């Protein structure tokens, strides 16, 4: 497990500078009171199901299966559970592949399933999430999308962006991710 995961680190000066990029396979544990989570992550660049998953622990307000994150933190060995990546910072990465964008859109708005999400991607292109971030009104121009659905997608994109910026800013000032999640 550690061997494949260690390959994802960028030459850290200390163990605390390590980073991991990957997709949440499953949420092993989540405490809703303080947002402490244990996540199973499929590392970026994994070529098959045989690639070992990485266990990431930390404080994450709303993790979802299938979302891709960049985690910054350090590797620690837990006496019972083995090697784990303790995240001190995180950033939700918007999907870039067509399938990833469809999965994302189908998970954020009520009534938007894979078929409607595919229509959005076909109408706006694979980079539709970036386009919508730049010009949210694009979604309102799609005749097959209800205004409430368009607003839910926009709200989710903005919330994820704001959350990532806040965490990056706050955690760099010495505030723990646990406290950042509460804020």
Structure description:
This protein has 183 residues and is α+β, with helices and mostly antiparallel strands. Helix content is 38%, strand content 27%. It contains seven helices and five strands; from the N terminus they run H-E-E-E-E-E-H-H-H-H-H-H. It has helices at 2-6, 98-108, 114-124, 128-134, 137-140, 147-172, 177-182, and strands at 18-30, 36-43, 54-59, 68-78, 82-93. The chain has a five-stranded mixed beta barrel. Strand 4 (68-78) and strand 5 form a beta hairpin. Helix 2 packs across helix 3 (114-124). The longest helix has 26 residues, at 147-172. It is elongated. The relative contact order is 0.13. The model is unreliable at 1-14 (pLDDT under 50).
Number of helices: 7
Low-pLDDT segments: 1-14
Shape: elongated
Calculate the mean pLDDT score and round it: 79
Q: Strand pairing plus helix content: what structural class?
A: alpha+beta
Topology order in helix (H) and strand (E) letters? HEEEEEHHHHHH
The neighbouring-strand order within the major sheet is 1-2-3-5-4
Instruction: Using the CA coordinates, give the radius of gyration.
Output: 17 Å
Q: Largest beta sheet, briefly?
A: 5 strands, mixed, barrel
Which percent band covers the strand fraction? 25-35%
Share of helical residues: 25-40%
Total E-strand runs: 5
Q: State the distance separating the first and last CA atoms.
A: 33 Å
